[in-house]
């Protein structure tokens, strides 16, 4: 299988025509994924709501790495957005060899105190759009017999999380879907990997309306090593990966504790 040249440490044999689609590319992990992939001589399609930060990133990557970068501003939380994006790329004859399904956001607070429309919007982006993109582009990859899909789940996917109830549930879906698709797609020459970051220095907390506890601050990682961990796991053909040693310990501890204890522990960790 040709694995789209996803090697973090460098690979001179990467095809210059290999193209990666990165969603949520205007900030946070999306920026890091785009930078790492451009450094591997991969052409890019950047997708997010905001055009301006993507145009700046695209200009920087073109100048620094000499790669082709297409900017596609679109709100993936809108119904039918994934299909519209695919049609746009087909019209431009852009073939996607790798999909980095990174777009998503979280909501912090008690479930009934959170506006329902925001929760539904989050579910639309974190679950529905991710599923549609994986199906639409994964179908093409399977037909060609090659491709890579990276899904961004979360450390919160491993247990129920009070004050992040719906968000953690969306990420549990992503992890479960990704691991199942890993087995389904493998025989068709496509690698599917789910990355589970812990708390990361991005704009997530501000968007979620959350304040960081001292315990959570101790577990915080920079976005670059998180993105590197995801691409490395994808290149190694893994079903899933957790970024960071301490985060791996947290996930492992869930195997040894009852779910009631997991909920109580996460409630303390997430409290400001």
Would you mind describing this structure in some detail?
There is one protein chain. The chain is an alpha/beta fold and 272 residues long. The protein has a single domain (19-270), classed as NAD(P)-binding Rossmann-like Domain (Rossmann fold, 3-Layer(aba) Sandwich). Helix content is 49%, strand content 13%. The chain has a seven-stranded parallel beta sheet with strand order 3-2-1-4-5-6-7, with helices on both faces. Helix 1 (29-39) crosses helix 8 (223-235). The protein is globular and about 50 Å long. It starts with 18 loop residues before the first strand and ends with a helix. The model is unreliable at 1-16 (pLDDT under 50).
Instruction: Please tell me the CATH architecture by its name.
Output: 3-Layer(aba) Sandwich
Strand content: 5-15%
Major sheet: arrangement of strands: 3-2-1-4-5-6-7
The major pleated sheet works out as: 7 strands, parallel
What's the total count of β strands? Answer: 7
CA-to-CA gap between the ends? 47 Å
Protein name: SDR family oxidoreductase
Family: Belongs to the short-chain dehydrogenases/reductases (SDR) family.
Pfam families: adh_short
InterPro entries: NAD(P)-bd_dom_sf, Sc_DH/Rdtase_CS, SDR_fam
How would you describe this structure in keywords?
single chain; 272 residues; alpha/beta; Rossmann fold; 7-stranded parallel beta sheet; 10 helices; 13% strand; disordered N terminus; NAD(P)-bd_dom_sf; SDR family oxidoreductase; Sc_DH/Rdtase_CS; oxidoreductase; SDR_fam
């Amino acid at each position: 299988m040709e694995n789209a040249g996803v090697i973090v440490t460098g690979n001179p044999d990467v095809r210059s025509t290999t193209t990666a689609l990165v969603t949520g590319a205007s900030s946070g992990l999306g920026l890091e994924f785009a930078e790492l992939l451009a450094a591997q001589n991969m052409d890019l399609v950047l997708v997010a709501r905001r055009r301006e930060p993507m145009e700046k990133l695209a200009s920087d990557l073109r100048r620094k790495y000499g790669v082709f970068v297409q900017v596609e501003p679109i709100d993936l939380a809108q119904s039918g957005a994934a299909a519209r994006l695919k049609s746009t790329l087909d019209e431009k004859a852009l073939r996607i060899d790798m999909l980095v399904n990174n777009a998503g956001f979280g909501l912090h607070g008690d479930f009934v105190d959170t506006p329902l429309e925001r929760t539904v919007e989050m579910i639309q982006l974190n679950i529905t759009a991710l599923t549609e993109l994986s199906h639409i582009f994964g179908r093409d990859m399977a037909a060609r017999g090659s491709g890579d899909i990276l899904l961004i789940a979360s450390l919160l996917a491993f247990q129920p999380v009070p004050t992040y109830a719906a968000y953690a549930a969306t990420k549990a879906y992503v992890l479960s879907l990704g691991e199942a698709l890993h087995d389904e797609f493998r025989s068709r020459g496509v690698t599917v990997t789910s990355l589970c970051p812990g708390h990361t220095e991005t704009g997530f907390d501000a968007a979620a309306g959350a304040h960081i506890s001292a315990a959570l601050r101790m577990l915080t990682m920079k976005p670059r090593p998180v993105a590197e961990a995801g691409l490395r796991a994808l290149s190694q053909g893994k079903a899933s990966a957790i970024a960071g040693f301490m985060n791996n310990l947290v996930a492992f501890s869930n195997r040894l504790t009852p779910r009631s204890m997991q909920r109580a522990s996460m409630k303390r960790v997430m409290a400001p």
